Amino acid sequence: MPILRRAPDSVAGALERQGQLRTQRSLGAKGYAPLSTVVLSRAERRVPETVSRMRLDAEEILELVLARLDDMKAEDTLTIDLRNRSSIGDYMVVSSGRSQRHVGSVADRVVEDLHRAGVAARVEGAPHCDWVLIDAGDVIVHVFRPEVRAFYNLERMWMSGHAVQRAS
């Protein structure tokens, strides 16, 4: 059974008159009402979204990713140009971390920067941190532990005589 208390009419009434508070009341036994449920008006808090939000192109996303990988001291980073070979994206970035913790940290920071820039990125493999895949739309980022990278050898599959750019 709910605890019944006398509704503070003076405070709630004053706020209702000012338009800042709307309450739903139902009187119970002996004129007591359960605690009022506050319903906030959402009209005052809505912020219109910007109409013309610029979307980053593939080259800008690539620069952002490469800068963050360099900042986080990712190793053996290379970029594969996929523009004329596949429809999955424009660029693929393959990089290595020194340990599972380093791989997870690098991937987290890349995703944070992408979200700050307004790029929706999807992440796979983050709980185990052996191989983390970040899909940023036009740019796909793979962050591996060195042993896992050597095992799967994605570079060999995608390079096959095409341009590959190693980051320094």
Key traits:
two-stranded antiparallel sheet; Beta Polymerase, domain 2; 168 residues; 24% strand
Structural description of this entry:
The structure is a single chain. The longest helix is centred in the middle third of the chain and has 17 residues, at 100-116. The strands form three sheets. This protein has a six-stranded mixed sheet. A two-stranded antiparallel ribbon has the order 1-3. With 168 residues, the chain is α+β, with helices and mostly antiparallel strands. The relative contact order is 0.15. It folds into two domains: 4-39, no CATH class; 58-166, 2-Layer Sandwich (Beta Polymerase, domain 2), CATH 3.30.460. It has helices spanning 9-18, 58-71, 100-116, 146-152, 154-159, and strands spanning 4-5, 22-24, 33-34, 37-39, 75-81, 91-96, 122-124, 131-135, 139-144, 164-166.
